[in-house]
Specification:
32% strand
């Protein structure tokens, strides 16, 4: 069992867990992910690593309650354990000194962007960070990112905080002002990453996105996480999760994400028939 050392609610339906996982913490790098299973009968779900501390032997994940498993996970408390916690999986981010870089995070995608942004700054890059959410209440890690970025820009869909609009509005302005941007990282909902890639394309700026397709084993054996990149089939678990955003077939990615919507709905209803939290 992997023990939950700390639990914190960052926003409505978004929870941060610090997990005791010394072996994973020793090898984890920005951009990688874990696959966890709450108990022996539970579903396996991938979650990108939001932080890690090799000295303390901890791995941090940030979970948004969307389906049955994430809702059950968020019901767990400090001192309780997770049956399986496997990782680090996937290829780490390519972190090096590039000059000026922009990191764009949307919603809970801000979480996996944090260690990438921190590492890019540690390499000596000029770092512009753009984060966004539907409203102020759903923004996470603003203070942490403010401490590492040279500039932090915020957008909310409803205008309740920062600029009213989307992260891509701010991104376009940055690219028009900063003529020497070397690369852009975009992490968040698939539609957001698609729009980030569309925004950077006219500027011919390298754009890295982190794909989150349906995944089962995380080792390339099942093929569930296949995506089309540059006209070739790739497996997000072993070839990614990061890919060139200009090469991703976004429409296919969206179709595959919606494959099991009805099953997900039934699973959620089975654990939440009365609207309350029913833990495992």
């Amino acid at each position: 069992m992997y023990t939950i050392l700390k639990k914190a609610v960052l926003a409505p339906s978004i929870t941060q867990f610090v997990i005791s996982a010394p072996e994973i913490a020793q090898k984890a790098q920005p951009g990688q992910f874990v696959i966890l299973r709450i108990n022996e009968k539970g579903e396996r779900i991938p979650l990108t690593i939001a932080d890690f501390d090799s000295k303390k032997g901890t791995v941090t994940i940030i979970v948004q309650e969307i389906g049955a498993t994430t809702r059950q996970l968020c019901c767990l408390n400090e001192g309780e354990g997770i049956e399986d916690f496997v990782g680090p999986l996937g290829r780490p981010s390519e972190i090096k000194k590039l000059g000026c870089v922009v990191c764009v995070g949307g919603g809970v995608g801000i979480a996996p962007m944090y260690p990438i942004a921190r590492s890019l700054k540690e390499k000596g890059n000029k770092l512009v960070i753009i984060i966004g959410a539907r409203n102020k209440e759903l923004l996470i890690l603003e203070d942490e990112l403010k401490c590492i970025g040279d500039e932090l820009l915020v957008a909310t869909d409803d205008g309740s905080y920062g600029r009213k609009g989307f992260v891509t509005d701010l991104l376009k302005e940055v690219l028009e002002q900063e003529k020497n941007v070397a690369a852009v990282w975009g992490i968040g909902p698939v539609v957001m990453m698609r729009e980030v890639s569309k925004t950077t394309r006219p500027f011919k700026i390298r754009t890295i996105v982190s794909l989150n397709p349906i995944m089962v084993d995380g080792t390339g054996m099942c093929g569930a996480c296949r995506v089309m990149v540059g006209g070739e089939t790739k497996f997000a678990c072993v070839d990614g999760p990061e890919f060139d955003g200009h090469q991703v077939d976004w429409e296919l990615a969206l179709q595959r994400l919606n494959m099991f919507k009805e099953e997900e709905k039934r699973a959620l209803e089975s654990i939440n028939p009365g609207g309350g939290c029913r833990c495992l």
